[in-house]
Amino acid sequence: MKRKAGLAAAEALAARTEGPLACALCDRPLGMQVEWHHRVPKSEGGRETVPVHPICHRTIHASATNAELAGPLADLDTLRAVPAVAKFVKWVADKPADFRVPVRRGR
Fold first, then answer.
1. Which runs of consecutive H residues, i.e. helices, occur in 3-105?
2. Angle of CA points 44, 28, 30, to nearest 5°
3. What would the pLDDT profile of 39-53 be if each residue is shown by its tens digit?
4. What is the largest CA-CA distance in the chain?
5. CA quadruple 4, 6, 25, 30: dihedral sign
6. Which of 10, 36, 53, 54 could tie 49 with a disulfide, CB 3.0–4.6 Å?
7. Does residue 36 carry a pLDDT above 60?
8. Rg of the chain over CA atoms, in angstroms?
């Protein structure tokens, strides 16, 4: 999904819920750019998506393979427990919503 379309979808979802929409990974408020993460990858038959920051989305895919995301890491709490992801979530907690930096692959 394109980022502008992602923002429109996030705004529509926020209008249906109470308060600002938060990132499914780091729980910070979403900024101007929103991406939609398939909890189970589309290549593995997944359909459900959750809104995430672009940096969070890149971190998810840099930290786990599609097979891992289709298995035990489809649960966001389990994904947050992965050491590299837990370290990232702690680090990004005080950053602004549209914060950007390169993400290294760590698989």
1. 3-16, 54-63, 66-70, 76-80, 83-92
2. 75
3. 999 988 889 999 999
4. 37
5. positive
6. 36
7. yes
8. 13
Environment class of residue 57 by beta-carbon count within 10 Å: exposed (0-12), middle (13-18) or buried (19+)?
Answer: buried
Among residues 36, 43, 39, which one has the least CA distance to residue 10?
Answer: 36
Q: What is the DSSP string of 76-93?
A: HHHHHTSHHHHHHHHHHT
Kind plus residue range of the DSSP H or E element containing 49: strand 49-52
Structure-block tokens of residue 6: 């992602």
Closest to 96 in 3D by CA, of 44, 31, 19 = 31
3-state secondary structure of 1: coil
- pLDDT band for 12, please (50, 70, 90 cuts): low
Residue type, 83: P
Using CA atoms, how far residue 34 sits from 3, 41, 81, 89, in Å, is: 6, 18, 23, 17
Q: What angle do CA 94, 77, 66 make, to 5 degrees?
A: 100
**Contact between 36 and 51 (Cβ < 8 Å):** yes
